[in-house]
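Internal ticket #5521
Category: modeling
Description: The requester needs a full-assembly model to guide mutagenesis choices. All entity lines are attached below as received. Residue total reported by intake: 678.
Assigned to: D.W.
Attached entities:
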Amino acid sequence: MKTVYFDNNATTKVAEEVFEEMKPLFCELYGNPSSMHTFGGQLSRKIGRAREQIANLLGCHPSEVVFTSGGTESDNAAIKGAIAAVPNKRKIITSRVEHPAVLAVCRDLENHGYTLAEIGVDRLGHLDMDQLDYEVDEDTAIVTIMYANNETGVIFPVEKIAKLVTDRGAIFHTDAVQAVGKIPLNLSNSYIDLLSLSGHKLHGPKGVGVLYIRKGTRISPFMLGGHQEAGKRAGTENVPGIVGLGKACELAAENIEQESQKVKRLRDRLENAILRECPDSRLNGDKENRLPNTSNISFEYIEGEAILLMLDKFGICASSGSACTSGSLEPSHVLRAMGVPFTAAHGSIRFSLSRYNTQEDVDYTVEKLPLIINQLRELSPFVAK
Amino acid sequence: MWEYTDKLKDHFFNPRNVGEIGDPNGVGEVGSLACGDALKLTFKLDKNGRIQDAKFKTFGCASAIATSSVLTEMIKGKTLEEAANVTNKDIADYLGGLPEQKMHCSVMGREALEAAIENYRTGGEKKHELEGTVVCTCFGVTDQEIERVVRENDLTTVEEVTNYCKAGGGCGGCQGEIEKIIRRVQGDKARAKPAPTPKGTGKLTNIQKIQLVQQTINEQIRPALRAHGGNIELIDVEGNKVIVAFRGMCAQCKLAEFTMKDVVEAKLREFVSDELFVEEDKESALQPHDHRG
């Protein structure tokens, strides 16, 4: 059966070019980059090369790139490492719509004597900048606000936030896992202190990520037991993963403008057709100010898990903010923070595209989805005949 | 992805008896849009008092739709007395089992059936009403309903109760109450399990007391307040006086009906010591907060 993959904010296909670079690093070039012999030592050059490829995409210096096991580790390390370096400050600020890798860490620290402020968002998913301005004070150790939201794609004014925060002496971290590779970023003239990214969200492999640490930012080592990554993150390097991530960043940097235009065009066609063909459907989040690949649509009176399973039958992959898909009983915390009514939150579906999607994928989905919505509505007691 | 049986998938993709009977003998409606699932069941009797036809309309996930579909199949041809004996377990068994977290779908089916029979017996006048006192305000579940799922399915933990009827799965503020109901119904069976936070039997030292107060606030009190957009901070402990500050309290929240101080005091007495009393530090709580629901 045909697979139409519209779940690229969950994970992406590893680019063939990336896989080619990684292949020899398992059974042929399997040495340890820290070894004295050439067989292992030569790999440190490959790691150096990957660091440059990543720095090139981010617009930073290679020495500011620290490899981790992924976005979740980067987020944990950034927040815990930053507050450990400023023991006299006891306040943390984040947003109500963060990924759990940030939100759960912040809420846990609250149980260890830190004060936490969570900044709200409006109906379109925009951050409450007045509340942020009010909360950032001299006791604030770190402010962590995502670059772009994983569920709605809404982009926050991160540079503006970073300036406000760092002007007041706090550290600014951003979870840019969904943004890197989808929209251009430039850290060369930026106030961002710490930034997380993940390999498998931009056609790199799983199990590798980066924490960007701006030169001069104080952060405690977060993995002990070796000299790797300048002593910040000990442990033998994931060489294939790192090399793969480097290649993925190189590919992204080469084509980012062109690709995001293409993806946006497909996304808009899909979105417009769905909103046109399916009555009582609505877009969640700001239409303009968002990632080019993400579309979050609510279908009133029906439930997301049922929609996903029907789509699955046709080989169409998407995800939902409904309660039933997660095993919890409450729908997405992001949609609830935006004030999306329960009726719409239960029936929300996220489509997230990539460079590998085609017009054919869009046409196929637009052909099937209205039938599914119609079929489920016929079952719903809330739809009048 | 959920582990659904083939039978369940069959009833989801090809639901039987969808719709509403035009001139029904009984109508049962349970659930709501806000709760994430809802079911409307209608049936018609033949001249011998057997269910001749049954139809359903369901809003919900795949298992909610499939349980509704099998329910209509199961009750057709039965007398009302026979139908009334169908339990949620029968429905789940008929499907070859349901994932634990989806058991509430089978309970919803049983509830709709009961509501429809009741509606018939009261001559179509009585609509389904909640019996007992509401314990879980997030999902509108009463003490009687919780007692019943505990008894019928032999449940011993709060988590199981949440799986079977959703109670306790929202803000979590009623989990203590559910725990008590389980203990009342199950007696020793539930008590045999270790309590989540052991209450010291001997006299606590000051350090132990403060640690236990902090732990109780972290584990028992804050998660419930959080879910309602609020928060709590422990300011100090002086002897038996616990000084706390409330933050960002949600004005529309159901908990606001009680004074927060009493709720916190009750929890601390339950988990730490009967002698504790709570004082609110109003000054440090003076923080404007713009809460959006």
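Resolution: model delivered.
Comment from assignee: The mean pLDDT of chain A is 95.
Ticket closed.
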